[in-house]
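Quick one:
INPUT:
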């Protein structure tokens, strides 16, 4: 029974690859969460691609 559950979870993971969240490194596949895109910021010396927000958000505003 436990093996069946593990196999099922493994198959689901393969079929639905995980997405990368804000600030995490991403690859050329661009698997960032919705509303994010994979980019670099060479201005601050960061050459690794990271998931960034497409529009800035004010953390103190109430929605």
């Amino acid at each position: 029974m436990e093996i069946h559950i593990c196999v099922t979870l493994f198959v689901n993971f393969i079929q639905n690859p995980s997405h990368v969240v804000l600030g995490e490194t991403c690859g050329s596949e661009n698997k960032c969460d919705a509303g994010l895109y994979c980019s670099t910021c060479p201005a601050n010396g960061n050459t690794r691609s990271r998931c960034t927000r497409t529009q800035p958000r004010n953390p103190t505003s109430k929605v």
